[in-house]
Amino acid sequence: MDKLLRPSTDHSLAALVAALVDQDGSAAHSYCAPAINGDRHSFVRDLVDFADFVHLVSLLHGQVPGLIDHAAARTVEVSARGWLLKSIDAFAVERQFLGKLSVAVGPLPSTTGHHETTTIIAQQRHAIEMLAQSDRRGTAFGTAVTLVLEWQAIRAVLDAGAIRLGIEPPVSTLPTRAETLSLLADMPDPERLTRAVQFGATQLLGQHRGMWDLLKARSAVRATQA
């Protein structure tokens, strides 16, 4: 079911997606927000929690082909081609960074409920893959756009953890938030795409919230076992 946004004076496609990411994205989650809003070093000081984060993100977005690769094959809007090609190349660097961090942090932390965790993440990855390969015009594109916007929050935590480990984070060449929202603002025939783009965005954000919920729960379990 499509999520209803709170009232806004700007109902453009760009404003709708930006509002969704700001209201329901990773940076707004109670477990992630402290790491984004000025307390990154506290979050990554416990490398067990950081390792958990790295591995779960890798399980969701470390595969090839990835979400953006699939979405590019499903997006017919010519105006989006340059943005998609730039995002594909840039996300290849992000996957390499995830791989390097995965090796550096060691194996997935031992936590009660490991089997349930792998099952949940597999289900989330499958859901994301289905979104990225949707034949409904605009859904895959909306999912890809939202991932790029979301990645700014995810990358902030990855960078802080990398520095904690003595690893120099590579420069991200993903399209900026301004570039991405500008693309959405200039999309032709937005009325035809809005609901599908919004659906893809809400669904991806839901999967990311599920990941953060799982990370928070696993951290709490480990704290009780300490």
Number of DSSP strands? 0
Chain-averaged pLDDT? 90
Total count of domains: 1
Which class in CATH terms? Mainly Alpha
Q: Could you list the spans in which at least 5 consecutive residues all have pLDDT below 50?
A: 1-9
Q: Calculate Rg over CA atoms.
A: 17 Å
Biggest sheet, open or closed, and with what strands and sense?
Answer: none
Number of alpha- plus pi-helical segments = 10
CATH architecture: Up-down Bundle
Give the termini separation. Answer: 41 Å
Summing up helix and strand content along with how strands pair, one would put the structural category as: mainly alpha
Describe the structure.
The protein has 10 helices and no strands. It is mostly helical and 226 residues long. The protein has one domain: Up-down Bundle (Heme Oxygenase, Chain A), CATH 1.20.910. Helix 4 (47-61) runs antiparallel to helix 10 and helix 6 (81-105) packs parallel to helix 8 (139-164).
Short note summarizing the structure:
The chain has 226 residues and is an all-alpha fold. Helix content is 71%, strand content 0%. The chain is globular, with a radius of gyration of 17 Å.
Features:
mainly alpha, 226 residues, 71% helix, disordered N terminus, DUF6975, 10 helices, Heme Oxygenase, Chain A
Helix/strand layout:
Blueprint: H1 13-24, H2 33-36, H3 40-45, H4 47-61, H5 67-74, H6 81-105, H7 114-132, H8 139-164, H9 177-185, H10 190-225
